[in-house]
Specification:
The complex is a heterodimer of chains A (about 180) and B (about 120).
Chain A lengths: L5 H9 L4 H24 L2 H18 L9 H23 L7 H11 L7 H11 L3 H12 L4 H8 L3 H19 L3
Helix pairs in contact in A: 1-2, 2-3, 2-4, 3-4, 4-8, 5-6, 6-9, 7-9
Chain B lengths: L15 H66 L4 H7 L3 H13 L6 H9 L2
The chains are: A mainly alpha (about 180), B mainly alpha (about 120).
Chain lengths: ~180, ~120
């Protein structure tokens, strides 16, 4: 499938005759990346599946409001990361008075799920990341795994480049400390 | 961080991405249908509610009119029978002058007499 630029894709979507075709193009072009960023945050496939679907449905619902001041990619990432952070926040509140802990649930999933395929050090990294505050973990994921520029991350998270650099730097220090067993 | 590979350890079920687009598009259509249906339902509720309100108001007014008519009929009957005099009924009212003005307007409403003609009319009796 030939990639479409944002303007062409938006034109397809805005025309009622080609709206479905435009949606499908958007899905097929972005679904893996959106799923990837969500999955790295929520760890569990079923949760990532729900949130990915919610992200696109929200995007379709609000496409008329998309002003084009950022790229479609950045806009979708913003919706996806907000969905993920809101989801994790709700999980924290829900488990506040119960024995279970969602962070523990995600750590156990890393150990036991067939949908995790990594060596011990890669799994260890994910478990260490789970101990970081969610926003710091998000910044780390976007910079380290997604390899986005700080400018891009700044647009997605509405955070200054300086704050992002500081956050990433601290995350790296914490991870290195944990890995080295300090 | 150089010693840690950037391997993606997160796997998906077989064929997950092959069906994801269809699933999302189908859900999106259903959501749009739900929005349309809920708007129609809201409009229907408003129309029925408003209709009921108007019906109830008319019913109440009609009953009130019927009640007043029944009272008027009874008063007239009592006056004709001689059980009540018109003066007695007027004295029971809060504003007898208003009632008299109403009667005059009703009985003389079709007349367009000027003051001179009115005086002559009065003096003819």
């Amino acid at each position: 499938m030939e990639p479409l630029d944002d303007l062409a894709l938006l034109s397809l979507i805005k025309d009622p005759k080609t709206k479905e075709k435009g949606y499908r193009f958007m899905l097929e072009h972005y679904q893996k990346r959106i799923y990837g960023v969500v999955r790295k945050m929520v760890i569990i496939h079923d949760d990532a599946d729900d949130l990915t679907q919610n992200t696109f449905i929200k995007a379709f619902k609000n496409i008329e409001k998309f002003k084009g001041d950022s790229s479609l990619f950045t806009w979708l990432y913003r919706i996806a990361t907000n969905e993920s952070l809101n989801f994790l926040e709700k999980k924290k509140k829900r488990f506040f008075v119960s024995v279970d802990d969602h962070e523990k649930k995600m750590a156990n999933y890393l150990d036991s799920s067939p949908h995790i395929d990594g060596d011990a050090i890669a799994v260890l990294l994910q478990k260490i990341l789970l101990k970081l505050p969610e926003k710091q973990r998000l910044v780390f994921n976007l910079r380290y795994f997604e390899e986005l520029s700080y400018e891009n991350i700044s647009e997605i998270t509405a955070t200054s480049v300086g704050a992002l650099k500081a956050s990433y730097h601290h995350a790296v220090k914490k991870i290195e400390k944990e890995i080295n067993g300090e | 961080m150089k010693q840690i590979p950037k391997k993606n350890i997160f796997k998906t079920p077989e064929g997950y991405f092959d069906h994801l687009a269809d699933e999302i598009l189908s859900k999106n259509k259903n959501k749009q249908r739900q929005v349309v249906l809920s708007r129609w339902a809201a409009a229907a509720i408003l129309v029925v509610g408003f209709g009921l309100f108007i019906f109830r108001e008319n019913l109440f007014n009609q009953q009130a009119r019927e009640n007043l008519y029944a009272v008027d009929q009874e008063v007239e009957f009592l006056i004709e029978q001689g059980d009540w005099y018109a003066d007695d009924v007027l004295s029971m009212s809060e504003d007898p002058n208003a009632i008299l003005d109403e009667i005059i307007a009703e009985e003389w409403g079709t007349y367009e007499l000027n003051d001179t003609e009115l005086e002559q009319d009065l003096w003819s009796y």
